[in-house]
Amino acid sequence: MKKVLTEVIPLSEKDCFYMMDRDKEAFSYPLHKHDEMELNFVENCDGARRIVGDSIEVLGRYDLVLVGSGLEHTWDQYDCQSHSIHEITIQFPFDLLGEQFLAKNQLSSLRAMFENAKRGIAFELPAIMELYGKLTHITNAQPGFYRVLSLLEILYELSLQTDYHLLASKSFANVKNTPESKRVRRVEEYIDENFKKEIRLKTLSDIAGMTPAAFSRFFRMRTGKTVSDYIIDIRLGHAARLLVDSTVNVAEICYECGFNNISNFNRIFKKKKGCSPTAFRDNYHKSKIVI
Q1: Per-residue pLDDT tens for 68-77?
Q2: pLDDT digits (tens, 9 = 90+) for 10-62
């Protein structure tokens, strides 16, 4: 199997972050991961494709993403016709602010954003436009302490944004939610442990101590998803991970991840991921290199 390139960032233990501001004609860096978190801003990238975890999206003119530690990602040329791509990449340790400092009440939004970044966060155009000036001028900030302050200001203001979406599925990124509701937590734990089997609504509602109808409403209100959509997303995340990390055939993956019909699996996968399982595997591997 091909493996994902593990990038070694030229960031010493005495540095707060590493920053690159460059103009280029094309995207050429392969799929990779690194221990550091990464804030990546790109403009003039219409038609390019971004891969973060099991998320594959075609871009418009602007893109702004925060990627957590160890999460696979790349930007590839795909259908981008621009030859004047501008990219600003800022990479910093995931413990830049320190666990104790990040736990303070005043930093709760940053703490939540860093947790979400484990799956990758794509900020929408309104958020990008609001931060555009600060993003494009951080390289002009006075080096040293004041440039660190500029980065912290950008991160904090991003943490207050509501115009964003998460990229990798939590099962692909191996992220465990810690919902405030104990009922939801118990149900999610059960689904995580039993996604390969048939899961009945009655079983989940019994775990929550509610009637099926009441539980369905409660679960959607707390998670933003129906029970069936949540289960499907968990299964698809595991399926995507097997597609990129193994040579197991699609039919075996289908049944291994709790789907009982290959046609249904292909249909749902294409609807949710925008391509067939086979195309997903091919697209992903095209962005890998052997190490």
Answers
A1: 999 999 999 9
A2: 888 889 999 999 999 999 888 999 999 999 999 999 999 999 999 999 999 99
Residue where the block lists tokens 């959607």: 220
Report the distance separating Cα 239 and Cα 71, nearest Å: 17
Whether 9 has a pLDDT exceeding 70, the answer reads: yes
pTM value is: 0.88
User: What is the predicted pLDDT for the residue at 6?
Assistant: 82
| Among 89, 88, 76, CA closest to 26 | 76
Please spell the DSSP secondary structure of the chain, one letter per residue: ----EE------TT-S-EEEEEEESS--PPSEE-SSEEEEEEES-TT-EEEETTEEEE--SEEEEEE-TT--EEEE-TT---S-EEEEEEEE-TTTT-HHHHTSGGGHHHHHHHHHGGG-EEE-HHHHHHHHHHHHHGGGSPTTHHHHHHHHHHHHHHHT---EEE-S-TTTTT-----S-HHHHHHHHHHHHHTTS---HHHHHHHHTS-HHHHHHHHHHHHSS-HHHHHHHHHHHHHHHHHHH----HHHHHHHTT-S-HHHHHHHHHHHHSS-HHHHHHHHHHT----
Q: Which residues pair with 275 in a beta bridge?
A: none
